[in-house]
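Revision sheet: structure tokens.
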Amino acid sequence: MDIILLERIEKLGTIGDVVTVKDGYARNFLLPQKKALRANEANKAVFEANRERLEKENAEKRTDAEKLGEKVAGAEVVLIRASSNTGQLYGSVNVRDMVAGLEAQGHEVNKKQVIMGAPIKTIGMHDVTVALHPEVHVTVKANVARSDDEAELQSQGVDVLAQMFEEEQREIEEAAEANRIDPNLEPGEIPAELLDEGVATPEGTSETEALVEATDHKTEDDA
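Predicted:
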């Protein structure tokens, strides 16, 4: 279907352009939202008769949006959510959450202006686009964290997920180090550091039995 754009549409054109789009896109979105007119001779004549007024109104709206954009751009919305140890949220952050967070900071936005693509499902810092006008888009931050302390770290540029992973890896390595066995030992041989110096091995008693007995005595003494 051929249509006349009444405002700038990304990837299509700007006000006054005649473009061809799929019928469903025109009927279900552009025409009902008054973003375009069918490109017939009657509508072309109406548009041309009102072009100057429409362009002036668009310019005024763009100016107002630019002023608002200066205040909204860079805003950070902190959203505390529960998540797994891997950072996956038990739920998600959606457009409504962002609108409520921005409104709480005094920014006048609505759900149609917040562009997320898909709900946020992990902790971290996420960019969210706010379309204040077809020609004025700004970026705000969604700071999704499990606590206020984590949110503060993320605001400072700390990658909390990476930090969590590093800490887990360090704990695993430390546990492995604490339980490391000398690879040069023969099967069944007891590491020298585990043997108490001077512990006698009674006749008929294996080294392992002697070690267990000595360990039991040491445990009783410590108690």
